[in-house]
Prior knowledge:
Blueprint: H1 11-38, H2 43-64, H3 78-115, H4 126-150, H5 152-162, H6 177-187, H7 189-194, H8 198-216, H9 233-239, H10 244-247, H11 257-261, H12 288-293, H13 298-305, H14 310-314
Amino acid sequence: xxxxxxxxxxxxxxxxxxxxxxxxxxxxxxxxxxxxxxxxxxxxxxxxxxxxxxxxxxxxxxxxxxxxxxxxxxxxxxxxxxxxxxxxxxxxxxxxxxxxxxxxxxxxxxxxxxxxxxxxxxxxxxxxxxxxxxxxxxxxxxxxxxxxxxxxxxxxxxxxxxxxxxxxxxxxxxxxxxxxxxxxxxxxxxxxxxxxxxxxxxxxxxxxxxxxxxxxxxxxxxxxxxxxxxxxxxxxxxxxxxxxxxxxxxxxxxxxxxxxxxxxxxxxxxxxxxxxxxxxxxxxxxxxxxxxxxxxxxxxxxxxxxxxxxxxxxxxxxxxx
Length: 321
Ligand SMILES: [Zn+2]
Ligand SMILES: [Zn+2]
C-alpha cells in the first residue's frame, strides 16, 4: 500500500523515501562493495553480495511506493525478463571476458610500453578512478546505444529492450545478448585496454548493476539536482516513450554527461509517459526465445505489425527510431 495513499498518508515518510532511498542504497552499495574488496573478498563475490540484497530491496519497495500502479501489476513479462537477466545480460560479458581478457591485458601492456606511459591513474583515489571510469566507459556506451537507435540494422537487436510494456526493476536485464555484447565492448573493453584495475572494473560493474535496477524501477523517487549527474529513472522513462522524439534522448546508461555534451538530455517538466513501448511494433513477441529470434525475423515482425519497414520508408542507413 503506497504510503501516500489510501487515506493514511504519512507525508514525512513518503518524502524521506522519495528523496533519500536512492542516495542511501546507491552510495551505500558502492561503499560496502569497496570495503568488502579492501578486506580481501574477491570482486565477483563482493559484487554479488551487494547487488542481490539491493535487487530484493528495490523489488520489494516497488510494492510499497510505485510510480505507476499499472506498472506494479505483472504484464506476463517477468519470466522472460528473469531469463534475460541471467542468460542475456550476466552471461555474455563473462564469456567475452574469459575469451578476450588475455588479448585485452596484452593490448594494455603494449599500449603502455609503446607510448612510454600508463594511461590509467591506478595510484589515485577510488573517488577519482571510479568517476573517471564512468566518463570513459559511457562515451563508448553512449555511442553504441545511440547508433542502435539511429541505424536500422542495430535497432533490431535493441528493440527487445524497448518492447517492455512497463518499467520495473527486472527489465534492467531485458536485453538481447547481442545488445549486451555490443555494450560490453563499448563500455568495458576501453577500461581494460587503458589499464584500469580489476577492482575498478568490479566497482564499475556494481555501480552499473545497482543503477540499472534503479533506472528502470517503478519507484516514486526523485533525484532533484542529481538528475544532472545520473541517467536515472526520471530521465530514462522518457527514453522508453512511444514518441520517437522523446525516445531518441537520454542514451546514458549510468550518467548523463555525454547526453549533456551531445545535447540529447531530455527531462521536461510534465508527467512521464505511462504507456511505453515501440509504436511501430505494438505486438512484439513476449517470450524469451522469440526475443532471441527477433533480429533474425525482423521483416516478419514488421509485417505482422502492419508497419512499414523503416529501411524502406526512409533509406537503409537513416534514423530507425
Ligand atoms: Zn534505447
Ligand atoms: Zn531502459
